[in-house]
Amino acid sequence: MDALELLKHDHRMVEQLFRDYHAAYSDEQRRGVAELVVRELSKHAALEDLDELGRLLDEAKRVAPTRPHPHAPEEPPALTLAAPLAAAYDRIRDRLQRRPRT
Q: Is the peptide bond before 68 cis (omega within 30 degrees of 0)?
């Protein structure tokens, strides 16, 4: 089961748990269902966070230089301007040298 299917499954499960909560007859039953809801929502949030982290990592890899530049500026705004230029330079150099992509 891939992450998207798992998220959809979790969503359906939480919807069912909310229905169970509203149908519960006692406070004890509601408390048990509420604990399950919290557990399922926590898992769901963790999966969404991992998915977002993966997207951010891919974006960072796309715009970051591929090797260190010891003389590059370390503070904004100069770093903000220099990093994309260094990244473009590195990628051109990597292609010319036929280095593998990361």
A: no
Whole-prediction pTM: 0.53
How many residues belong to the chain?
A: 102
Q: Is residue 101 within 8 Å of residue 94, measured between CB atoms?
A: yes
Report the half-sphere exposure of 16 (CA within 13 A, side-chain side): 8
- Closest to 94 in 3D by CA, of 61, 57, 70, 60: 61
Closest among 93, 34, 39, 41 to 67, alpha carbons compared:
93
From the first residue on, what is the mean pLDDT of each consecutive set of 10 residues in the chain (102 residues)? Answer: 77 87 88 88 84 89 82 83 86 87 70
Helix (H, G, I), strand (E, B) or coil at 67: coil
- Judge whether 24 and 30 are in contact, CB under 8 Å: yes
Domain coordinates in residue numbering, the chain: 1-63, 65-102
